[in-house]
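Incident review: delayed structure delivery

Summary: a single-chain prediction request sat in the queue longer than the usual turnaround. Root cause was a stuck worker, restarted by the on-call engineer. No data loss occurred. The affected request and its eventual output are reproduced below so the record is complete for anyone auditing the incident later.

Affected input:
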Amino acid sequence: MIEPRDLERLEHQLGRVPYPPLRIVRRCSAGWPVVVEQPPVTPDGTPFPTAFWLCCPGLVRAVSSLEAAGGVRVLEERIATDPLLAAGFDQAMARHRALRPEAGLGIGGVRADRRVKCLHAHVAFGIAVPSYAIGSELLQAAGAVPVPCCMAGEA
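Output delivered after worker restart:
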């Protein structure tokens, strides 16, 4: 159940009023949301492209650094050349599509197979579904293992 305090904390973390999540998937050691599960549509009926949303500001910054360094391209190249990695990616995309069959979207809201749109969405999926090796690898590459608490001491 989402408590009013959770929504306040999410607003603080995101810097905007959040779309109400279905649940908090993972919290940090200080109790702040790290990943939330979003409903398939926003309150106004717009499809929400991905099931899990990364909301920890420290992780968002760390993963943003990976993206800025060409992380999306690097991951797509690895998927194209590593059959084992590609199989794990395909399985995760199928699992995500099963969570939102009405939209048929993969992680990050992509429609095309083996396309990476957003590393943040893959990290969020990896935290929500720990068996997703790519999410775990991205967390490690971002220097976020173990997941740090950047909100300790906040209201």
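Verification: The chain is about 45% helix and 10% strand.
Action items: add queue-age alerting; document worker restart procedure.
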